[in-house]
Design goal:
With 179 residues, this protein is of the alpha+beta class. It is built from five helices and nine strands, in the order αββαααβββββββα. The strands form two sheets. It has a seven-stranded antiparallel β-sheet with strand order 3-4-5-9-8-7-6, with helices on both faces. The longest helix has 19 residues. The chain is globular.
């Protein structure tokens, strides 16, 4: 199940990292920088994310509260990430986007619902790309940096509300640590 979730998260990050082209229907990468994000390259982005570690943005108590466990640091498409397994099914990914602002994510055809996470503006996207078991929360840190949270209720379910509840609660926890 974890491999399926990792594949889904990778595809979600890839889909949202693309910017829409003219009207050719062709997706184009939002960034041509293929080098992995490191602590030094994170410093080039927003100072609030420079020293942040995604696995430290949700405490063990908070993880238990939202039904996740076993944080695993990773990188996906140049973003530092942390993935948690869901207790039972699903899971959560937090991605620090040090060079991509919230407005640059391509959620073409999806409804972006404005939200407030702690002191930060952002939005949620329920069932992006018709994946009814997922919900994304994006926290706008600055015009050139953001935090993307991808919550999954589990591929065997259609519980978008559960995924969105997990994404919003997680975004509030993360935002509290970035203030």
């Amino acid at each position: 199940m974890k491999h399926a979730r990792i594949a889904i998260v990778g595809l979600a990050l890839l889909a949202t990292a693309c910017t829409s082209g003219a009207t050719t229907g062709e997706a184009k990468p939002g960034s041509t920088d293929a080098s992995p994000t490191s602590a030094s390259s994170a410093a080039a982005g927003d100072p609030k994310l420079a020293s942040a570690k995604p696995c430290e943005l949700i405490s063990a108590t908070e993880a238990t509260d939202i039904g996740i466990k076993s944080p695993t640091p990773d990188q996906s498409l140049g973003a530092e990430t942390c993935e948690w397994d869901g207790v039972g099914t699903g899971g959560l990914t937090v991605a620090l986007e040090t060079k991509q602002g919230a407005d640059s994510f391509n959620y073409e055809g999806a409804v972006k619902t404005p939200s407030k996470f702690g002191a930060y503006d952002g939005f949620t996207v329920a069932a992006p790309d018709k994946a009814v078991y997922t919900c994304h929360a994006v926290i706008s840190i600055s015009s050139s940096s953001s935090v993307q949270i991808i919550a999954s209720a589990g591929a065997a379910t259609t519980d978008t509300a559960k995924a969105c509840e997990m994404a919003k609660k997680s975004a509030d926890f993360v935002a509290g640590k970035l203030s």
